[in-house]
Amino acid sequence: MTPEKIRPRPIDGYPPQYPPMPRRSIEPFEQVRDNYLSMHDGSSPPAASWQRAPLVTRPAELLALLELDPALEALDYERLRGFPLRVPHGFVARMRKGDPQDPLFLQVWPAIAEGVDTPGFASDAVGDLASLKSGGLIHKYQGRALVITTGACAVNCRYCFRRHFPYNDSLASRGNWRETLAQIEADRSIEEVILSGGDPLSLADDKLSSFVSALERIPHVRRLRLHTRTAVVLPERVDEALLGWLGRTRLQKVVVLHVNHANEIDAAVESAIIRLRSAGSTLLNQSVLLRNVNDSSGVLAALSERLFACGVLPYYLHLLDRVQGAGHFEVNENKAVKMMGELAAMLPGYLVPRLARELPGAPAKTLLPW
Ligand code: SF4
């Protein structure tokens, strides 16, 4: 599909009825990495260590590494290849061996429950396609615009709300940012640009720094926000090249990490967070409330404490975006509200994230009272 064929989708009648579990057209992380490596003929700097990081992509390999029952069932091959297993070895090392209920394992394991079509769940859970402009720009909220920079991620999170997103139809995710920048320049209301994806830190630093340099030349853009899970699952991504352009930009920087459980933060992640802060970034975290992963006030309290010990403020706790294939992760809203009350009784207010849901067409995230 060419970008011109992307039409805003009317909100009436939402959620749209898509065929179940279509294949996602993405630029795989391995492909981004391999393309980058193939560009290196010895005349340019060698690939960074994060670009050589080994990934686990076969269910049998993950089970063997974790000493789990090799008979544990995974999604069948045909469905799995639309959104394959992908997890860096370093993240696997933070999982408990021999425990099929490990909260990090459950986030990446392609369970057969993903094959169940859940009523009320859709391919485009948050109405991205209705707000998608050519150039890969998603402009939902006043003053902020989000750029889909890439479809690649270092990890495939099984609850991902963009797991069916047509990344290949987005100009920005194909590396052509001219139209994206022209739209931002033409709209003086845009003061903050959010790089998302996929994960923007899947991109090489020369691409990111040239895009950010171009943003800096637009006077009304004041803030740059990066949404990333790569900095958590692959902390070696926060290297000198990244810190160099991040530290130099005139834009105010906000890095929103995506951590769902305290066990995700080991010493390497803590060090990456410290480096991001030293480059002048404000660090926030958003989590997704996931059944059997973090659906207890004790687990959430431990997460908030761990984040703050690293200098990160818990920002949002999202109710699951109702994307097809992720129904088994959903936590009942009443339970979520009850847990928030418990959490507030355990922690100072600044460590209690806002419980939020993203509703298609709404002018902001919808905060849930508790
Ligand atoms: S890192 Fe983010 S965009 Fe990528 S699969 Fe996970 S949730 Fe989705």
Descriptors:
ten-stranded mixed sheet; alpha/beta; TIM Barrel; disordered N terminus; 370 residues
What do you see in this structure?
There is one protein chain. This protein is of the alpha/beta class and 370 residues long. The chain folds into two domains: 29-115, no CATH class; 128-367, TIM Barrel (Alpha-Beta Barrel), CATH 3.20.20.70. Helix content is 29%, strand content 14%. It has 13 helices and twelve strands. The protein has a ten-stranded mixed sheet with strand order 3-4-5-6-7-8-9-10-11-12. A two-stranded antiparallel sheet has the order 1-2. β11 (354-357) and β12 form a beta hairpin. α12 (297-309) packs across α13. The longest helix has 14 residues, at 333-346. It is globular and about 55 Å long. The relative contact order is 0.13. Residues 153, 155-157, 160, 162, 197-199, 229 line the site of iron/sulfur cluster.
Topology:
Elements: H1 29-38, E1 55-56, H2 59-65, H3 77-80, E2 87-88, H4 89-92, H5 103-108, H6 128-131, E3 132-133, E4 137-138, E5 144-148, H7 178-186, E6 192-196, H8 205-216, E7 223-228, H9 230-233, H10 240-248, E8 252-258, H11 267-278, E9 281-288, H12 297-309, E10 313-318, H13 333-346, E11 354-357, E12 366-367
Parallel strand pairs: 5-6, 6-7, 7-8, 8-9, 9-10, 10-11
Antiparallel strand pairs: 1-2, 3-4, 4-5, 11-12
Helix pairs in contact: 8-10, 12-13
The structure holds iron/sulfur cluster (SF4).
Iron/sulfur cluster binds at residues 153, 155-157, 160, 162, 197-199, 229.
Entry summary:
The chain has 370 residues and is an alpha/beta fold.
Overall form? globular
Largest sheet: 10 strands, mixed
Q: Enter the CATH topology name of the largest domain.
A: TIM Barrel
Secondary-structure class: alpha/beta
| Number of alpha- plus pi-helical segments | 13
Helix content: 25-40%
By CATH reckoning, the class of the largest domain would read: Alpha Beta
- Biggest sheet, spatial arrangement of strands: 3-4-5-6-7-8-9-10-11-12
Task: Please name the fourth-level CATH homologous superfamily of the largest domain.
Answer: Aldolase class I
Q: Can you tell me the number of structural domains?
A: 2
* Secondary-structure arrangement, i.e. CATH architecture of the largest domain: Alpha-Beta Barrel
